[in-house]
Design a protein that fits this description.
By secondary structure, the chain is of the alpha/beta class. The chain folds into 2 domains: 87 residues, Orthogonal Bundle (Arc Repressor Mutant, subunit A), CATH 1.10.10.10; 189 residues, Rossmann fold. Helices cover 44% and strands 22% of the residues. It contains 13 helices and 10 strands. The strands form 2 sheets. It has a 7-stranded mixed beta sheet with strand order 6-5-4-7-8-10-9, with helices on both faces. The chain has a 3-stranded antiparallel beta sheet with strand order 1-3-2. The longest helix has 28 residues. The protein is globular. The structure holds S-adenosylmethionine (SAM). S-adenosylmethionine (SAM) binds next to helix 6, helix 9 and strand 5. S-adenosylmethionine binds next to helix 6, helix 9 and strand 5.
Length: 322
Amino acid sequence: MRQPQDIVLLLKAAGEVTRLRLLALLAQGELSVKDFTEILGQSQPRISRHLKLLADAGLVTRHAEGAWAYYRLNRDQTSGALSAWLMEHLDTDAPEIRRDLDKLSSLRGAQQERAAAFFATIAQSWDKLRSLHIAESALEDAIVAEAGQGLIDIFLDLGTGTGRMLELLADRYVQGIGLDSSREMLSVARAKLDAEGIETAQVRLGNIIELDDYRDTADLVMLHQVLHYFDDPSIPIVHAASCLKPDGRMLVVDFAPHDLEFLRSEQAHRRLGLSEEQMALWANAAGLSVVTCRTFPPSRADGLTVCLWALENLNSNNTKGV
Ligand SMILES: C[S@@+](CC[C@H](N)C(=O)[O-])C[C@H]1O[C@@H](n2cnc3c(N)ncnc32)[C@H](O)[C@@H]1O
C-alpha cells in the first residue's frame, strides 16, 4: 500500500498533458531524451524537467548511457498499474497523441534506414570488422558449447548478416534459417554458404520484429551482435522469444556497457552495450530467464568486452534459470 502523499505525487506527475504524451510514447518502448525532443519539438531542458518529475514519482526509470539517457515505463506495482490504466483509457487517436506516435514511427524508420545504409556499405568487410574489437575464437568456442550437445532441429539466426553463425554451427543443426533486412549482407552470406557447401542453411530477407511465420518453431534462436542497433532491445527479444519451442534456447551475444560514443555516429549503434541487469529485466519481460552469462575480455587495449547470454523459457524443463 502507498502513503497518501505518494499517491498524490504519482497523480500530479501523470496529470499534465506533456507528461501524458511522454508516457504514451514510452508505452511503445524505451526512448532517449533525444528521441523525445525530436518528436515533441520541445527543448531538451524542458523535456528533461518533465522526465525528472515522472522519474521522481516512480512512473519511469532512467538509464544513462554515454552522452544519452534512456527512459522506460516502470511496470512495477502501483506505478505500473497507473500507467497501464492510463494507456488503456487514453485515446491514441487524439490529435497530439496520434501525431507523436506517427512521428515516433517515422523516427524509427529513419534510424533503421541509417543502419541499413551503413550495412550496405560495409557488407563486404563485415567479417573483418566484427573481429576488430573482440576475442573472437574464445567466444565462438563458447557459443558452440552453449548450443548444447544434441542435434538442433531448427536454428534461427536473427540479424544473420553475413551468416557467420550459420557457418559456425553448420554441423549442429538440421535446418538453419538466417533472417536479415539487408540485401547486401545477405548476398555476402549466400555466397559464403554456397562456397562452403552448407546446404542445410538458408538466408531470407526479413524484419526480426515481424516473426509471426516463425512462432514456436525454433529449438535455438540467436541474436549475435544485433541488439545494440535497437533503441529498445526488449522488442526484438520478445519477438525472438515467440519463435522458441517450449524447451528451446536463445543465445544473445552483445557488447558489455562501454563508452565508445563514436560507434553511434560512425557505425549506427544505438545502445552502448547491454548490462547483465538490463538483460535479466528484458528476458523476464519476454517470459525467459537468464541461464548463463559469460563475459569475454577484449583481445586488445582498444577492444570491447563481449557477453554471451543463454536464455530459456521461465517454465522450461531444462536447467532452471539463475
Ligand atoms: C552487426 S550485424 C551482425 C551480423 C551477424 N549476426 C554477425 O554477428 O556477424 C547486425 C545485423 O542486423 C541486421 N538488422 C538490423 N536490424 C534488423 C531488423 N530490424 N531486421 C532484420 N535484420 C536487422 C543488420 O542488417 C545487420 O546485418
